[in-house]
Write a structure and sequence with these properties.
This protein has 116 residues and is mainly alpha-helical. 79% of the residues lie in helices and 0% in strands. Helix 1 runs antiparallel to helix 2, helix 3 runs antiparallel to helix 4 and helix 5 runs antiparallel to helix 6.
């Protein structure tokens, strides 16, 4: 149980640090947020829990394919915000687009070797 708490606490601290830095330095906060910290921590926790080469390779490859549909949100939201759309609506639209693209990726991903 302590191990699960440690994983959650460390992961949460990194997210909180990124948001705190972004309050004062938006660009640097974005740099921290853009680092694949969640992916790297996920790989570390997965390897510690199940040190299996094929499982890890499949996980990392799938992560690559699922990063792609998330990227348009980071282009859509600034355009919506700068055009005067409220933050929550911009975020919702960005999330809906991302979910639609994730759905498309799960449909076409197996053609590219993505295994669920």
């Amino acid at each position: 149980m302590w191990y699960l708490f440690l994983k959650a606490a460390l992961s949460g601290i990194l997210i909180a640090a990124a948001s705190e830095v972004a309050k004062r330095y938006p660009g640097f906060g974005a740099l921290i947020a853009s680092l694949p910290l969640v992916s790297v921590l996920g790989m570390i926790w997965l390897w510690r829990d199940k040190p299996d080469v094929e499982n890890m390779a499949s996980h990392v490859q799938a992560t690559f394919w699922f990063v792609l549909p998330s990227l348009p949100m980071f282009l859509i939201m600034p355009v919506l915000l700068r055009s005067g759309m409220p933050f929550w609506l911009s975020l919702a639209i960005g999330c809906v687009v991302t979910i639609a693209l994730y759905s498309a990726m799960t449909a076409i991903g197996p053609r590219f070797g993505l295994r669920m």
